[in-house]
């Protein structure tokens, strides 16, 4: 017997809706809690609210804290229960969240900004609070209450345009700041909290809305209004950057699941991308500029001299996405996806590259889902494998993806099911349950580890609704100790 996971890669499907919160006002920011079933929200009516899931399955606010101006950006450090909130007025507030999430207490207010704060970041190792705003300032503060005047700016750096996003490598004290022009600033704070400007990273043509740092791989992920995601291999010190293209609208959210090595991206049109990062991709080639087609050598329309000499009407310039050469339309008729170069949608390929193109270079790697909701932000819980999207319709949705499994059973009968993960992996063996079977068939985990295991802690359930579920195919958690995974 054998098993295979059918990703349905390249097709746009709909994620499964777990829960939904309808809010009467616009949501500026939200954070999905990891230790409890709850959501922190920053609302346009000047309130901070904590929504907890009740026994009825619905989410109700347990805290409603009113501020002097609308909160615009949140950062929550769950281990210390410290909540940081940036506001439209430029103020930064620090709150202490009660262990039962029924109370938040104002601890400190940080001064220094005069306009709307776009992003905040807290470094517990360095006791630093970082922030960027519309006044083109990147500020950092000390969060040690023992420091004198710690509510005032510890240091500041002037950007060329609005600061939009921020992240940090806490061990090396390297800060990454994205601005509205598409530039990423690479700054390092020394032991005296003075900055050293290392360099700027330029790979986007639109505002850098999202930045995410993975300390294990030393990768920096950036998402932009230009619809692309760039993976910067900072740790290699070779200037390597891989561009991921698959969205058709601006990026509003990026999350990275370290255990599964999967990058999750979300665009403003509600499309969710799932990108496997254990695949070696190549850098996107730079576009070559030329006055004539590099295949047929006919001139482009601005090459007046060549047009006159060759008695030829000028052609429009295009670029092959595989080699980057400047070509005319006649010499680049082929359209195909190039996943190993980060292109999950069909792209222009020149006639020379088509001859050498291998079949494995066009196999899709990423999968896409449609939340069917205009989205302003996305967050992801690695432990529970739950994704949260904030909609333009003032609705917060919690989603998960249901993996399709094809399983060859007795007499080579093809059976289909869904993939799950146990709540307590160490206490459960891998189980296969298939449509039409009334019995549970246990498998030896070692025999199927190469198929189903991810980092050694992955367990499988192919769901049989006739045995343990309801007629709609959803799990009955009272008798089934499994969660669907992404």
UniProtKB/TrEMBL annotation:
Per the record, the domain of life is: Eukaryota
InterPro entries, per the entry: AB_hydrolase_fold, WD40/YVTN_repeat-like_dom_sf, WD40_repeat_CS, WD40_repeat_dom_sf, WD40_rpt, WDFY1/WDFY2, Znf_FYVE, Znf_FYVE-rel
Question: Which keywords does the record carry?
Answer: Metal-binding, Repeat, WD repeat, Zinc, Zinc-finger
Keyword Zinc-finger set for record: yes
Domain (FYVE-type) spans: 287-358
Q: What GO molecular functions are on record for this protein?
A: zinc ion binding
What CDD domains does the entry give?
FYVE_WDFY1_like
Q: Mind telling me which Gene3D superfamilies this protein's record contains?
A: alpha/beta hydrolase, YVTN repeat-like/Quinoprotein amine dehydrogenase, Zinc/RING finger domain, C3HC4 (zinc finger)
Q: Which Pfam families match?
A: FYVE, WD40
For this protein, the record's PROSITE patterns field holds: WD_REPEATS_1, WD_REPEATS_2, WD_REPEATS_REGION, ZF_FYVE
GO CC term (a single one):
early endosome
Outline the WD repeats, range by range: 201-242, 244-275
PANTHER family the UniProt entry points to? LD41958P
This protein is called FYVE-type domain-containing protein
